[in-house]
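[[Encoded backbone]]
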Amino acid sequence: MTIDPPVLSPVEPTSRIASLDVMRGLAVLGILAVNVVSFALPFMVYDDASLSPFAVTGANAVARWTVDVFFHQKFITLFSMLFGASVFLVGGERGDPARGRLLRRRLFWLAVIALIHGLAFWYGDVLLLYAWSALFVMLMRSMRAKTLIGVGLGVTLALGAMQAIATWMMVAGPPAVTEAMGQGEPQYTAAMVAEAIAAYRSGWAGAMGQNLQSWMFLQGASLTMFVFSTVALMMLGMGLFKSGFFSGRAPTWVYAALIAVGGAVLALLGVLEWTEAMAVPNTDPTRGLAGAVASFPIFVTLAYVSLIVLATTRGLAWITAALRPVGQMAFTNYLTQTLIMTTIFYMPWGPRLFGQVDYVQMWGLVLGVWALQLVWSPLWLSRFSMGPLEWVWRCLTYGRRVPIRKGG
């Protein structure tokens, strides 16, 4: 049966799936805990804490350990999977030309918004990568759920294995191999970090110059390399949606097994990352094992998903009720996080605290934004049927003004 998009789209309140909204809410809040470092410090510090202007010891080490273990890569993985599900929700089967056109328009405007977001505000934008990756995934939306899951999960695990081997080889491989791999890595210094911080704090022109350099570097890598892992995750998400996994139709033992496996990986990662966090700076006491285990965030993400599905479909919906409004406004909340953080750190109308906030203080800002979005999302949705930026995106997609007030 063909659904006429102007009458009903997958983001209408009448067709929303509670577990998907809760997952989106968790994902958009979770990625802020990771992204805050990219707002507050130069991009080269993101993966290399040794370049940080702050000593990553004591409370700072615990703050960074918390992000690395429970958040890093777990929520962007979840976000990518959910975007794959939304490609099918919007576009339907490939035999539905009306919804196919709607999907293409939606992705076009997403790319436009992404360019504004990345170039005018923050280089770490992921929306352009999603629009680009979805162009490939949209061609696969009539595949069987088992095929999508098999290919998506298989490629994800294969890429994770490649990353794990490379990470281990960089530390514990033969000296000749380690030296050769190290020569291909960018060489950043503390002086470069200090120069970038000074540029961000110098004013709007300096901040935007640094942002443009970082945007070109990151988006180049995203559109040529990260697209492979993102397409695979979107395929997996689409397959899990079509199979009914996200809506609780899988047997309970499947969710329990995924929670057990993800919990075991999380526990191992926690121990290994703690060993590294407490070690002498610039040493690797795990000999690359922590990085190798961290290459498989998919197991932890699937455990998080399973917990949410069980909570929302097995009579525990009250546990996740607070996250659902945040997820219904995930697009608005994601972009609002950028506006808040860039205002704090380097926009001319803010206090310009770039390079001045350590990891513990970053957590204070993250918790503040979480509280704000957990409060404002249900308040907004009590009067309106969607978030303000969801409304803008939908109007652009449909080419006309659509109602936003409830009952409108």
